[in-house]
Amino acid sequence: MLLPLPKSRAEIERIQHERKRVAFERARRAPFWQGKLDGVDPAQLDDPDEWRKIPILDKEQLRCLSAEEFQRQFNISGGEPIAEYWRSGGSTGKPLFYPRTADDVRFGILAAERCWGCLGCRPGDLAHFSFPIGIHPAGQIWARSALDAGIGINWVGTGTSVPSIAQLDLIRSLKPTIWMGMPSYGLHLANLAEMNGFDLAGSTVSKVITSAEPLSPAKREKIERMWGARVLEVFGMSEVGHMGAERVAGEGFHVWTDMHFIEVLDEDTGEPVGEGETGTLVVTPLWTNNATPFLRWKSGDIVSYRNRGSGDGPYAVFPLIKHANRTTGFFKVRGVNINHADFEDFLFKNPDVGDFKCECIATGGNDQLKVSIEVRRGSDPARVAAAMAVAIRATFEVRPDVEILPIGTLAREFESATKAPRFVDKR
User: Is this structure's pTM higher than 0.90?
Assistant: First the structure.
């Protein structure tokens, strides 16, 4: 194996000591970093004060570069062949495409392979894989890692690749034990199954694995209820690869700190926060840096850090990070900020709501919040709509226009989207 699981924190510290120096020296070869690292002593990188002399790097700095400038200034692969490119994540801004050497890919697959064991997946499991499969690495790298982990996998892709109704047929006929995809697509499939009379909670799927989107407790509970399965998450980013996975639902991600050096910093001061306190996540890849020399990459994730999780086993050697929230959108309606994540959480806590869409519309010079909901079978739509309007006004201080949609309307509308567009600003 390229890098066996470390058996102690001391082993992790030794690897970090060696690989931080490698990451630093590789960065000094890149024109992008010229002049930015001159005041840093490479022999003292284990000193936190010395390490923090390295400037923080974020996506906006790289987006200022043209594609040609990025390859010329940030790509240090030299004459080594490029094995593939990984598209940056995120739904806004100019996408970036990161070159990867063969060694980068090998370590990327290794990091993904570790996730299977941490999640409690075992040889003999069969996974129905509904993540996007393409130039973004989250899907294809993880799917490729299944072979070494002994996990069977159906490379299905999203609803844009295989229609969702066909995906339900595959779940029914091939009987996977695991379903994998974005939380929004998991809910989409569950609503479609309910509309078509398929008892998804009674299927062979006993574990749902999600990533790439926020997963609030309310959304996790709703997916678990509709799928009749345990829900666990995986965390990673294109700049680094798969960073870790949950072992206990909701406790946080065990992070492979022998592969990624992480910091959780105060957003204003840049100083480290205490254990359990919230800060911004900064990551330095220690192995996937043969072409793109990321140092102290600010991911945009707001997390808390814990030195240890509950339980023991081979993954207990790794610390935990837990999302406080991700960078999420909001509507400003009549002077009131409505956070998308808070609103989604509010609606998904209501067991009468199957799915929803929220739109902000300009009508006669006034902003209107329109909330379209599908009411689950057995509930009174008029009662649910009236109660929802009152609850939204009391909670968010905005009077909404609540519309009832026939069951299946949103499933058809969301079918062609990789991520369900539940929030749309039409002003």
Answer: no
